[in-house]
# Entry
Amino acid sequence: MRKPVLPLTISLLSVLAVGASTSAQAQAPAPPPSHAAVPPVTPSPDQQVAGLEASCAASATERASRHAQTPLFQRLRGEQGIHAMTREIVRLHLQNPSIRHYFEKLDPDVVARRSAEFIISGTGGPKVYQGPDLTTSHRSMKLTNDDFVLAGGDIVQAMKNLKYGQEEIDEFVCTLVSLRAQVVLAP
# Structure
């Protein structure tokens, strides 16, 4: 019997809530009025990242066991599935008003392809990525934890759009969290 990784799911939900597109937020129904309503407290990006790091550390053994049984590459539906996922992620990034400026001058097909190659190589698939390391490719972007959280929300949404299960979403997000220090280079 698998032990659920509740803290990770809660952290991912907070990432998704913060990273959701404004159009989705505009469509959400308003909560019923309340005389003693307490406004929801959204954790800061730094708090969200710390929560994700803690949740990923707590679930590391379970994730490693799943990966040993069936590599994440296979559970992400191989090369075709990963290419579809990165195209969806780039599409959502371009719709996200808070981070789209990072992508607007880039060829979305090239970004999706190179991202897919990196993910294929890093999740148990063939070693097809031959581009620059993450720090080099992200240095000029000067990403912050806020950018990381917003991009993470798009990634979670893309995976949900493509009907990936929660275990695959959690495992992929934890992979990204483990690489955060190589891409978040701004204070």
User: Anything to note?
Assistant: The chain has eleven helices and no strands. Residues 6-18+44-183 form a domain with the Globin-like fold (CATH 1.10.490.10). The two ends are 42 Å apart (CA to CA). Confidence is low (pLDDT under 50) at residues 1-28.
